[in-house]
Write a structure and sequence with these properties.
The complex is a heterodimer of chains A (about 300) and B (about 260). Chain A is mainly alpha-helical and about 300 residues long. Chain A is built from eleven helices and five strands; from the N terminus they run E-E-H-H-H-H-H-H-E-E-H-H-H-H-H-E. Chain A has a two-stranded antiparallel ribbon. In chain A, strands 3-4 form a two-stranded antiparallel ribbon. The two termini of chain A are about 20 Å apart. Chain B has two domains: about 220 residues, no CATH class; about 40 residues.
């Protein structure tokens, strides 16, 4: 048992390490960021939602740094694109933190977090389930996705075009900035890295080559979550150092172990199972906001 | 055994007070076993032990002990159904409400004192919570009751009635000779602050004597440093967490690459 100084509660160290370790393991195994599983897991454990969201960002920073260490060796980061996405991300997270604080004051933060997770988990979960079932049935072959890459996108037609040598692109700076902004805002309010949106958008919208997508998205996540941790510490005082350290430890070790095993494993069954778990978790969020509550009164305005 | 020490001190001090007639609001001999409680990384809540002495030779009178944390504003909201979703609404602001409130009494409070005195001495948490403005939505009493109910569920508001008997342990224990002891358990989520301990002796529905003591709960060691940083040097605190993230991420990457 350890006392969390900011959350002002006592948690079981082994339980937190176990949860963060398994979330990290699963995310490493399947190749998704852990944020959108970790934050709900913390909320279900009784950590106040604002603390869970803000502290989760620290863990994502650790995981992305550990990922970037292996990715940069393969020269797989488009630094110019990464910087652009990060600038958008920092603007986005500033608005996100502002909204976070407003919602906390109004007493709606928990509901908004629940609703966003409800949509997110249901969406990502069903996509994962459908895709892996399709692969399992042999309809899609390895490396070919359900979506087809368009030849030209809006990124090619908008003004303020710029050359991205590493990606071999000459596209407008507006889509990366807008994309980064959205990811940053999502990170601030939900405590997610946003890879599940960023990576498909980089592939299908920006048409970046797949070999730089993962490294560049990790770079953007590292910058955004690092800045986010500092801003949340300063503005909302919801980042818990002790909890963050435990999450980083469990998450990073779990992710490395998971990635190791994932490389040697055909993981469509696991992806299908994870998709199913995410759908169940989203149903839990739905259940909590739809069923008549036993207690109709709650504390509001930052008192949780 | 500071508890034992307090007990001895009380017994020594007691005869002098026992001589006094039962004048209204004479000081009630009492002491807390711990003047301060330290919160470290292994903190799992604590308890406050109050000792006191009832000078009445025949042991008449009822004892009420109130332990309360600092008053702070609180907002209570009511959930409403909006498009099938339960949304928080109708906020009501309490200008001040005790963040912690434990009342221990030898008998039910309404048997000991009239309602007017419960309000006057703030012997129950609802009596101490002060509403900010007129309540526009519904019943102010319902919000007051909800505040007490919510805090009670978090073990921040407690009521313990009764005296320890050979078969049942209670918050208040009476010892032969007039000594009594009251123990209250503070959960880990109780605020880390200065607590006020009030002991009252009531007889014939009137106050005979009372005393006010203080207990300080303070963070020590690393918990203190973390809290200090997080509040006074929050940007540095955030940077520290980022550094930690980079260190953890880096060492994991290096460690697992070599394996």
């Amino acid at each position: 048992m350890i006392y969390l100084p900011i959350a002002e509660m006592t948690v079981n160290v082994l339980l937190v390490l176990l949860v963060s370790g398994s979330v990290g393991f699963v995310s490493g195994l399947v190749g998704v960021g852990g944020g959108f599983i970790m934050t709900p897991a913390l909320i279900f454990m009784g950590v106040p939602a604002p603390v869970a969201v803000a502290t989760g960002a620290g863990q994502i920073a650790a995981t992305s740094f550990s990922g970037i260490m292996t990715q940069t060796r393969r020269k797989s980061v488009d630094w110019r694109m990464g910087m652009l996405l990060s600038i958008g991300g920092i603007l986005g997270l500033s608005s996100g933190v502002w909204l976070f604080e407003r919602l906390l004051g109004l007493g709606h933060l928990d509901l908004v977090i629940s609703l966003l997770y409800l949509v997110l988990l249901a969406g990502v979960g069903s996509l994962m389930l459908m895709e892996s079932l399709a692969v399992l049935r042999g309809r899609a072959t390895k490396g070919v996705s359900i979506l087809r890459r368009p030849a030209r996108t809006i990124a090619h037609t908008l003004p303020f075009r710029m050359l991205f040598p590493r990606s071999g692109l000459y596209i407008s700076v507006i889509p990366p900035l807008v994309l980064g902004f959205g990811i940053g805002a999502l990170a601030a309010i939900m405590g997610v890295g946003g890879g599940f949106i960023l990576i498909p958008a980089m592939i299908y919208l920006l048409r970046m080559p797949t070999n730089v997508v993962v490294g560049t998205s990790l770079f953007q996540m590292l910058v955004v979550t690092s800045v986010l941790v500092v801003v949340q510490s300063r503005v909302t005082h919801t980042v818990d150092l002790v909890l963050a350290a435990l999450l980083m430890l469990g998450g990073v070790v779990g992710a490395q172990l998971g990635a190791r095993l994932g490389a040697r494993l055909r993981n469509e069954q696991i992806r299908a199972l994870l998709g199913l778990i995410l759908i169940v978790a989203s149903a839990k969020f739905l259940w909590d906001v739809v069923i008549p509550p036993q207690e109709t009164y709650v504390f509001g305005g930052g008192v949780w | 055994m500071r508890g034992a020490l307090a007990l001895v001190l009380l017994l020594v001090a007691a005869p002098a007070d026992a001589q006094q007639p039962s004048a209204v609001a004479a000081p009630l001999p009492s002491a807390v076993a711990e003047d301060s409680i330290s919160v470290g990384s292994d903190y799992r809540g604590s308890s406050i032990t109050v000792f006191g002495f009832n000078p009445d030779r025949r042991g008449r009178g009822d004892i009420v002990v109130v332990v309360r944390g600092p008053d702070e504003p609180a907002v209570v909201m009511r959930k409403r159904r909006v498009f099938g979703l339960w949304v928080n609404g109708n906020p009501v602001r309490f200008v001040e409400a005790p963040t912690f409130f434990a009342m221990m009494s030898t008998r039910r409070l309404d048997r000991i004192v009239p309602p007017a005195l419960i309000r006057q001495y703030q012997l129950d948490p609802a009596a101490s919570a002060r509403l900010g403005s007129t309540v526009r939505y519904g019943d102010p009493a319902a919000y007051r009751a909800a505040l007490v109910r919510l805090r009670r569920a978090q073990l921040l508001y407690q009521e313990h009635v009764g005296v320890t008997t050979p078969t049942r342990a209670a918050a208040i224990t009476r010892y032969p000779g007039g000594l009594f002891r009251a123990v209250v358990r503070l959960p880990a989520n109780a605020p880390i602050d200065r607590y006020r301990v009030d002991t009252y002796l009531f007889r014939d529905r009137r106050l005979v004597s009372s005393a006010r003591l203080e207990v300080n709960i303070t963070r020590v060691g690393i918990e203190q440093q973390i809290h200090e940083l997080a509040t006074n040097a929050s940007a540095f605190y955030g940077l520290m967490i980022v550094m930690l993230a980079i260190a953890v991420g880096w060492s994991a990457a290096v460690l697992f690459r070599r394996n």
